């Protein structure tokens, strides 16, 4: 894959937007910690506030560290501009607050990260913004429902936690005919595996806490799209509404993580293919959801839209909720933890953890079954990952009285 200036992704991830020679040869960019920036005169300060020069003003409005990161992220997402934030939720909320007003409608997909769902379903409602959740895997559902009131269509692909895909180009064909923006959460894929903007989306958001950081040592996010949209989100959603600005120290960690994204991601994908194949043949597993499997229901769409299948897998056990939790508890090397995209393999039970704010009815309506497990396949040796899964299955299902006697929970 080539970027706008014709260099490859791996090169841009390491070099875009930074010239060591302009910084006394320092290969690693300096970290700007200043909260405020001095002007030569009131006139220069006034012009900066009017947007008539590009002088930095105050770190909540931007800093040289943040600007370098944003230029690099925009390059990787093939966007005109990007805006970095203190968290993924910081990017999602700053962008959405900037795009809708009371009386507008948002249409979102059925499957979303728990806090995004909570923000849309419970956070925005009291402010007079209508939110409708539809199965956007079938674009016909959007075509049937969209009206002039719909200002934003929002989806993840693959979705957290159950790996459903939406066809970005097909959704964009529908939103384009309206005064309505399409916003895609690209956290699971990263810009290395999928570029929603090139498929027709207007905005892309990320939790950079995950694969982009890659080492579980920072919280960050970003949104990318057109320069006018980014300017508006920066000067309204971020500056005045959320204030969720990224610190210079986190910029430095994130820039370091991004340099190895392509190398790490290739290994995540390689390991995930093997884990998915193992799970699919296990008698303890009812369904394995991984875009790289031949049996994946949306395999053709995955091949068209994603460069590789990613490092995330969801699977349903032939077990009830308590037994599913017992399986997670029985793992020894694999860690029971939320988040994803780290070097460590992380596993969690969405109904109890990331999606525990959902009521029982919401879990059902949003296709999160009580026996669903999510695994973020890490960078450990593949044999050690599979050995751990194997011993947990055996200890829970054949060693302690639980049996796979035809129990089947999910619909
Ligand atoms: C998680 N996810 O374990 P931050 N979009 C997606 C995400 O997965 C997330 C965000 C946005 C998880 C975090 S759960 C308490 C831990 C697809 C986060 C939000 O604000 O950077 O955490 O991103 O699934």
TrEMBL record:
It holds the Pfam family Cys_Met_Meta_PP. It comes from the Bacteria. The keyword Thylakoid does not apply. InterPro entries: Cys/Met-Metab_PyrdxlP-dep_enz (IPR000277), Cys_met_metab_PP (IPR054542), PyrdxlP-dep_Trfase (IPR015424), PyrdxlP-dep_Trfase_major (IPR015421), PyrdxlP-dep_Trfase_small (IPR015422). PROSITE patterns: CYS_MET_METAB_PP. Keywords: Pyridoxal phosphate. Its cofactor is pyridoxal 5'-phosphate. Belongs to the trans-sulfuration enzymes family. This is Trans-sulfuration enzyme family protein. It comes from Marinicella sediminis.
